[in-house]
Amino acid sequence: MYIDLLIQLKNAARAGKHSAKLRFTKMDHQVAEVLQKYGFVKNVEVKGRLPRRVMEIDLNPERPIEGVNFLSRPSLKRYAGYRGFRRHRKGRGILVLTTPKGILAAREAQKEKVGGQLLFEVW
């Protein structure tokens, strides 16, 4: 799940690694693509065949993942409309949510005028 992905990326960045190999799921891949779009990771590459498909993610040393705050978890789901988003970490962080149009950052969701379940914020 995306929680494992984010924790492993944060730990790899703190350990000074340049890349990380993680198991592939569709949701993790979409989250990694959003992180790549906003500069937290350099490259996301899918390798192998099912059921042992893996993602190789190259970390961005200039903008490492310093922290993660999980807003929704299995016991508590949080939702917001597209007007309910605020700036995160004074513009340094991003808020990621799942919408009917896929996993998007809050900025993209506001442009497309869709709300959804808040997943996490990363900075």
Automatic annotation (TrEMBL):
One of its GO terms (molecular function) is structural constituent of ribosome. SUPFAM superfamilies: Ribosomal protein S8. GO terms for biological process: translation. Transmembrane segments: none annotated. Keywords: Ribonucleoprotein, Ribosomal protein. It comes from the Bacteria. One of its GO terms (cellular component) is ribosome. Belongs to the universal ribosomal protein uS8 family. This is Small ribosomal subunit protein uS8. It comes from Candidatus Jorgensenbacteria bacterium CG23_combo_of_CG06-09_8_20_14_all_54_14.
